[in-house]
Specification:
Layout (H helix, E strand, L loop, with lengths): L2 H19 L1 H26 L4 H56 L3 H4 L3 H5 L3 H8 L4 H6 L1 H18 L1 H9 L7 H39 L5 H11 L5 H17 L1 H29 L9 H15 L1 H5 L1 H21 L8
Helix pairs in contact: 2-3, 2-8, 3-11, 3-12, 10-11, 10-13, 10-16, 11-12, 12-13, 14-16
């Protein structure tokens, strides 16, 4: 290997090491880019209506701030007040579920009770993984800046990216060789289309499941309806696992009253998700997210475990957009430009 090649290899290794050390910052930047990308579509809509970009950006930011302010002013206080009580009721409901399950099994065969694992035996293998996930995330920023300043930094990055996205886009493209820059521009457009479709779909599902949960649980006279509905909407952001987790609080709390109500809540949530999926497929997909790209459920689950191991809780929540962007880059660079062009030369 020539000296210049060694130098290039050392520089590449150093860059990879540096990127690894600042991975939390890169994840924060990625989050800001996703938010700015989503808001930019609203800015472009205002521009097509005749508004100048500066005013359109300002209007979008003010609208976002108004929505967030209303959310934190009206929703968060009662939600935060109900959340501790919700966790207590869920714990009681899970205990009741375990007791009912053991009672049912003992009626079938009393000897099976001794073969069942205890609660500690189930939780113990999961503790190292949970501690690792909880201990990561934006650890550096939480330790040095705190959550409020981290959110402020996220908002500042989002505003800067939204104010002049083309400059940052061109700066990123110029990091690549000139012959490959048109391909990088194409990849960024594909990432934009993928993220737009998925984020629109997820936000629609989150709003709908929160609204339907609140209405349905209120009709059934369930306690802590606001906290349960909000938690169900937040968990919907997590593909595959989220809908399953969103069933646990209402089903277990309903079990404290009687078993038929628990079954009713379970069936109700299944109907909610089916109705939301039908509305999305019939109305939202043809009108808004025509070019939506998807990932196989198994790959989505693997990506959640992979990104959670590197970035913690935030990586777990952002696994889907991270996986979508990674899928586009792997398809365009690795598959199309390397593997599809790989030819075996006969000696």
């Amino acid at each position: 290997m020539k000296f210049s090649q060694w130098v290039g290899f050392v520089i590449l290794a150093f860059c990879i090491y540096l990127l690894w050390k600042i991975r939390e910052l890169l994840l924060l930047l990625f989050t800001a880019a996703i938010i700015a990308n989503f808001l930019n579509h609203g800015v472009q809509l205002l521009q097509r209506m005749g508004m100048k970009r500066g005013y359109a950006v300002l209007s979008s930011i003010l609208l976002l701030l108004a929505i967030l302010s209303a959310f934190f002013w009206l929703i968060i206080p009662p939600f935060a007040e109900q959340l501790p009580e919700l966790f207590k009721l869920v714990a009681l409901g899970i205990d009741q579920l375990i007791i009912s399950t053991k009672d049912f099994i003992s009626r079938l065969d009393p000897k099976l009770i001794d073969a069942l694992p205890t609660n500690q035996e189930i939780i113990k293998p999961l503790q190292p993984l949970l501690q690792k996930i909880a201990g990561q995330g934006l650890l550096v920023f939480y330790a040095t800046l705190g959550i409020p300043l981290t959110l402020l930094l996220l908002f500042a990055l989002t505003f800067m990216l939204l104010a002049n996205p083309s400059a940052y886009r061109q700066g990123f493209i110029r990091l690549f060789p000139s012959f490959y820059r048109p391909k990088i521009n194409h990849i960024l457009k594909e990432c934009d289309r993928s993220l737009q479709g998925v984020l629109t779909s997820i936000l629609f599902q989150m709003v709908m499941i929160s609204l339907l949960s609140f209405i349905g649980l209120s009709i059934l006279s369930m306690p802590l309806t606001l906290a349960q509905a909000m938690l169900a909407g937040i968990l919907t952001f997590i593909p595959n696992i989220g809908p399953v987790l969103s069933l646990i609080p209402p089903v277990t709390i309903a079990l404290l009253e009687n078993s038929w109500k628990s079954v009713t809540v379970f069936i109700l949530y299944i109907i909610f998700y089916i109705v939301i999926q039908m509305i999305e497929n019939k109305l939202l997909t043809p009108l808004v997210i025509k070019n939506r790209k998807s990932i196989l459920p198994a790959l989505t689950l693997l990506s959640q475990v992979f990104f959670a191991s590197f970035f913690g809780v935030l990586g777990f929540f952002l696994a889907l957009p991270l996986a979508l962007v990674s899928q586009v880059w792997l398809k365009e660079v690795l598959v199309k430009d390397i593997l599809d062009r790989w030819k075996v030369h006969n000696s």
